[in-house]
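Bit of a strange request maybe. I'm writing a small parser for structure token strings and I need a real example to test against, not something I typed by hand. Could someone generate the tokens for this chain?
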Amino acid sequence: MEPENQTAVSEFHLLGLSEKPEHQTLLFGLFLSMYLVTVIGNLLIILAIVSESHLHTPMYFFLFILSLVDAFFSSTTVPKMLANLWTQSRAIPFAGCLVQMFAFHLFGTMDSFLLAVMAIDRFVAIVYPLHYLVIMSPRVCGLLVGGPWLITNIQALVHTCLMAQLTFCRGSEISHFFCDLMPLLKLSCSDTHTNKLVIFAFGILMGISPLSCILLSYTCIFWAVFKIPSTQGKWKALSTCGSHLTVVSLFYGTIFTVYLQPTSLASSQKDKAAALMCGVVIPMLNPFIYSLRNKDIKVSLKKLLSRTVPSRS
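Reply from user aminoacidic:
Good idea to test on real output. This should exercise your parser:
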């Protein structure tokens, strides 16, 4: 059938994680709890850094940006999913779908670039400790955040503009809990060759660049630590990387684990699992990882909470 003889779709229906009615209440309670923990946790990290002047350093500046991005990243998909679960309405207009897709790829890719930037920060701190504050000047920190922000905006905008030009007439049901690139392309009756080519090109660029930067930074870090004569010195140097390494392992471990599974696992299920981990679970865990493993953040949080909730005499 020719595309011009078909009715174009202007509204989509997100099938979500489960179509069974008995699961809806459980999923709503679970994801509402996770979302509140994510937003409150990242907000506390942000306030802890802002309220303490001694945390106004490059390392905590990048953590501040990461917490901000994580809060927005989670807010891209979870509120809409909660609304769908609560109202039992799965509809999302085409324009809303494009906005959600843009935001998801913007903040998701920015997350991976920030992990790379934080690896560079740890590299400079450990390999060039005496020149750390000179190298990581406010201007350099601004460029390290502004550069990836510009690149990720361009990437998300290109994907969105290309998607906006397509016609959709192969149904309106998206087998996902949010609007993503590949599920949408499956519903298009237009030529999607260009879209797929751009997705592949950006996937290689945006995937390999941050990971290569992280691997190179930690190779140099481990080599520098290896040359430190004392065990105590080695442990002290590596301890500053513990939280970051944990988050990197979670982020990339999820991607590798999901997409290196046997082909018997449906592609849509892989996409859902990866999106849930990277867009919901990891942003929720990050505040715990950075607060539990970081003495300065813990002290700052205690001061913040003591000022907010004064102790009763």
